[in-house]
C-alpha cells in the first residue's frame, strides 16, 4: 500500500503543473464567460423590460430616480453564475476528475470535494433558483412580505436540510466555551440566511451599493478560503457577472442603458453570501468563522437591524418602504448618491479588512464579537444623530 501511495504521489507531482495550468485556464474562461453571459442577457432584456413588466417606477417613498428603470440586473448576474456552474461541470467530467490521481490532486489543489456536484452544491443552487424566481415575480407583481419570507425560508431549508450546510456552533462568543446550537442549528441557519438576504435587499437603495458590498465581502471570503471549491468558483463568477451590471447601473459608458438589480438580484447576492458564510463557518479546516461574517456583512446587517427596529418602535411594518436608511441620509447630506456610495464602501472595506485581520491574527472570538457589537452601537449612535447633524450642516451652508 505504501509503494502504491508513493507511486501515486510521484504521478501527481509529474502532472501537477499541467493540471494547475488547466485549472487556471478554467477559472479565466469561466470568469470571461460569466461576464459575457451577463452582458448578453442584459442586452437582450433591456429593450423588452417594459413589455415583461420588469420596470422600477419612480414615485414610491424609497425611490430616488425620476424615470422608470429596468429591473433586470439580477437576471444577468444569475445567468453569469449558472454559466460558471455549467463550465465547471463540463471541466470536471471531461478533464478535472478523470482518474483517481487527478481526483486526489484536484482535492489538494482546489480544496474541492470529490465528486464536484456534492449534495450541498445541488441543493444550494436549487435555493438560488428559488430566490431568483420569486425575486422576478416580486419585481413584476410586488409580492407581499409574507410570500417573500416564505420563499427565503424555503431557500434556507433547501440549503440546511437538503444540502446539510448549517451552522452548528457560533464559536466561543463569551469566553465560556463554544456556543453549540444543537437542535437549533437548522432554524438558526434559516434565520441567518433570511436575515442576510433581506439585508442586501434593503441596502440596495442607491446605485452600486449592494453589488459593491457583495464584492467587498467576497474578497474577504476568498482571502480566508482554504481553496477554490465549487462555491468559491461560483462566487468568483458572480463577481465577474456583476461587472456588466455595474457598467450599466453606474452609467460608466453614458447613454440610456441604466438598469437596477431588482429584488431578484439583491436577494441572490444575499443568498450566495449567506451560503458562503455558513459553509465557511461550518468548515473546521478553514474559512471565515461566525464572528468574522459579522464584520464582512457589517454595513448591510447593521443598517437593516437599525431601520427595522426603528420602524417597529414607531408602530410601522418592519418591511415598509421609506428613505430612512443610512445611504438615503448620506445622499441628502452630500447631495450626491455617488459620494454616499464611496463613503459606505470605504467603511465596509475597512470593517471587512479588520474582521479578516483579527481572525488571521487569531484574536479570541469573544473579543472580536465584542468589537462587532461596539461597532453596531456606534452605528446606532450615528444613525440617531445624523438628521440633527444634517440640519445644522444645512443651516451653515445656507
The number of domains is: 1
Strand numbers in spatial order across the main sheet? 1-2
Beta-strand content estimate: under 5%
Query: Helix/strand-derived class?
Result: mainly alpha
Give the low-confidence spans.
97-114
What do the pLDDT scores average to?
85
In terms of quaternary structure, the protein is single chain
Using the CA coordinates, give the radius of gyration: 22 Å
Give the count of helical stretches: 15
Topology, number of strands: 2
The topology string of helices and strands comes to HHEEHHHHHHHHHHHHH
Distance between the termini: 83 Å
Helix content: over 70%
Helix and strand arrangement:
Layout (H helix, E strand, L loop, with lengths): L1 H44 L3 H4 L2 E2 L12 E2 L2 H24 L3 H11 L8 H23 L3 H18 L22 H19 L5 H16 L5 H20 L12 H21 L7 H7 L1 H16 L12 H9 L2 H24 L4 H33 L1
Antiparallel strand pairs: 1-2
Could you walk me through the main structural features you see in this protein, from its secondary elements to its overall organization?
- With 398 residues, the chain is an all-alpha fold.
- It has one domain (2-283).
- It is built from 15 helices and two strands.
- The chain has helices at 2-45, 49-52, 73-96, 100-110, 119-141, 145-162, 185-203, 209-224, 230-249, 262-282, 290-296, 298-313, 326-334, 337-360, 365-397; strands at 55-56, 69-70.
- Strands 1-2 form a two-stranded antiparallel ribbon.
- Helix 3 packs antiparallel against helix 9, helix 8 runs antiparallel to helix 9 and helix 13 (326-334) runs parallel beside helix 15.
- The longest helix has 44 residues, at 2-45.
